[in-house]
Amino acid sequence: MFIGSENQFRHLFVVKSVENTIDDTKNVGSIKPVLTKDGKAFYFEYKDNDNVLRSDIIELDKVMFALHVKAKSMQRVAKSVDITIPDAPVVGQDYVIHIQVQNYIGLGDDLIHTKFGAAHAVKGMTSSDLYKELALSMARNFKNEAQQLVKIRLIKADGVVDVDANTKATSLTEDYTGINITEARQPWRLGVYPEEPVYFSVIPSQIMVDGEYVDFAKITKATDDNRKGAVYGNGRHMADLEWFYHGNRGDFYRERTYPDNFPFTPIVDKDAEYDSLEIHYYWHNDGINVGRSERTITLIGTDLTNLLDKFGTGKTIPLTIKEEEEIDPATSGIVGQHDTTNAIDY
Fold it and tell me: H-helix or E-strand containing 138?
């Protein structure tokens, strides 16, 4: 009887160079695509940390798709928003800005962790003074978090000033024109603690003006070079991917049986960025094993140009590789970066 999940897996190869021959003398990460003698199938020879491997033999007519994804389209931009208050402080009003963190420390989307900054407007208070009070209040409110979730910064004419729980009000002597809140990069540990975005929303309260409640603040995506979110590459995610799929080569329990395990020597550089070539295909047999078992080979590398040159009409492997349209994360609105024309942007 055929079971639908039979042999459904992904094999991952980290490509550093494309060679004409593969043997034990080649550097780790060397690869060679090979076409079978009948021209109907192909496979890869690969030099791993310990020995030479051979991939599945892939029949050309059973390839469902082959897709090249560029590293840039897998980048992520940290969320960064500016808070500005268009009007002068209204004496006697309480200004409160809430910061809601969704999926707090990975406990689920239903868990929303709320912090805030508050300031009471008094006679003689300037807009700059109000920004300082709110920023200091926010920083103190985040003081006891196990890890930094956001960075709080005061905006000034020539840049920003970082504000934390230890910042003294007396040290903030310049004229400030807004507050910037930027996602802080989270801790990461290979194979144990994946890097995740900080999903947060900035929600200002309302104040009373001429007998009516009105929104006092504008929340906008930070676009200034001094304040826009940092761009994070996919190196850490690829390192986790390599670590996980290494188990398919012998270390099935991913080091959990230490010291009785196969040691893992990573090839991926967590600080680099990787293109990806995905070849998705299927296998099936005759008789009672006619069910289709889908599989994927993923090849990643900082530069796959030489490998891609081996594919195409008249090339070593007569298989067309499709190019994914390159996506600029700074303008695409992908996870981590949002246009915030109003307070709640999720």
Answer: helix 127-141
- Asked if residue 223 and residue 100 are part of one domain, the reply reads yes
Give SS3 for 203: strand
Total-model pTM: 0.82
The DSSP code for 188 is: -
Query: In 3-state terms, what secondary structure has residue 60?
Result: helix
Beta strands 41-47 and 52-54 are antiparallel
Domain-located, residue 17: yes
Range of the domain at 310: 10-73+234-330
Regarding whether 88 and 67 lie in a shared domain, the answer is no
Cβ-based neighbour number of residue 228 at 10 Å: 19
Residue 246 CB neighbours (<10 A): 22
Q: What is the tens place of the pLDDT at every residue in 247-288?
A: 655 555 566 777 776 667 889 999 999 999 999 998 877 666
What's the CA gap between 77 and 213, in Å, rounded?
Answer: 35
Total count of domains within the chain:
2
